[in-house]
Amino acid sequence: MFTTxxxxxxxxQLGINRSLTPAIISGVTIDSRKCGAGSMFFxxxxxxTDGHDYIPELLEKGVWCAGxxxxxxxxxxxxxxxxxxxxxxxxKERRSQFRGRVIALTGSSGKTTTREMIVxxxxxxxxxxHATTGNLNNHLGLPIVILNxxxxxxxxxxxxGMNHASEIEHLVKTADPHFSVITNIGTAHIGNFNSQADxxxxxxEIFEFSKGVPVANIRDRYISEWVExxxxxxxxxxxxxxxxxxxxxxLPELPEYxxxxxxxxxxxxxxxEGISPDPVKSYQNFEIPGLRGxxxxxxxxxxxxxxxxxxxxxxxxxxxxFYKKYACAGENKTYLxxxxxxELGDFSKxxxxxxxxYLKTLNLVERVFLIGCEFEKIRPDFLNEKKVxxxxxxxxxxxxxxxEGVFLLKGSRGNRLERLFELL
Length: 424
Prior knowledge:
CATH topology of the largest domain: UDP-N-acetylmuramoyl-L-alanine:D-glutamate ligase
CATH superfamily of the largest domain: Mur-like, catalytic domain
CATH class of the largest domain: Alpha Beta
Number of domains: 3
Helix content: 25-40%
Number of helices: 15
Distance between the termini: 45 Å
Largest sheet: 6 strands, parallel
Shape: globular
């Protein structure tokens, strides 16, 4: 929520002199279907639709509209050369007025779970929190989250995603966080980089370009190296991920990677509030985001659904956790349904091959079903494997899946492994 006076100020910064009717703008969106009277719509040209096509109808509904093309003679239409630039600068101005604290996080995996746990922990401390929702964690989504932040919130928790270098830098300069954290530095999106070191440098932009306090996991070698270089000039809070294992005694039902997410969340909340949050109470008020470790039972089959996304590190962590909890228990037969890992570029064949070689060592798993094009590329290297079955699509699993057992579904989002439930 903000006023048209703020809009006038930003337009002036962009060299546009415009007087607007005094009004309060109730919220912003780039989805025309979510617009209500008094809200603001930013029109972007997409691959299939052009947001400018919806402007006449939205103006009639009492919506403020910002666009860069077309001629709309209306007091609520704001014409700008670059809609993204206008939205970003507006978000920066709105952020400068916010008197609460801003927490930013990024990482190769676990971002959303850690974000939601931070929110839960702060709320158990009676704090009001506004946070990123869904996938609004990029150059389009983050400004929207900031512009929709209530002025009286105690905290704004922002998730930052990236595919290329300089993207996190841009988001940090827009959000100006008081505290920042990196869940981990793995190989997600490594296909867009020359090496993991280059990818790590891009993740570390959240520390490098922030004026706030970095909360750093020194167990990660790239983060530890950054801390060593900057500890004399920056106020850095450090923690060791090994201590996350202490949570297993009070939250024994959770896999290790989830405990690491909770531990990370507790450390940044501790840095912000000065006291440690109660992990048990926070977890009781926490709802695991969809497709991230939820359990579904259909007939005599039990599925562990962890297929929102995947990279080599998160894949192995998920499989290890599943193996320890279910396969080693020996109560039911266990199976792995794994989808290809995307955005690995030239590293893809090597990393998928290493994964399959690791899977071959899991003696207590009955069978492994491998889905997607990236696994198909290495099929010739494993022609004699009886335990490992290469399939083109998740639809092919429905015809061969056993009638009972415990199954792990894990893979990158593009596989849409959850379609299996429709087929069954």
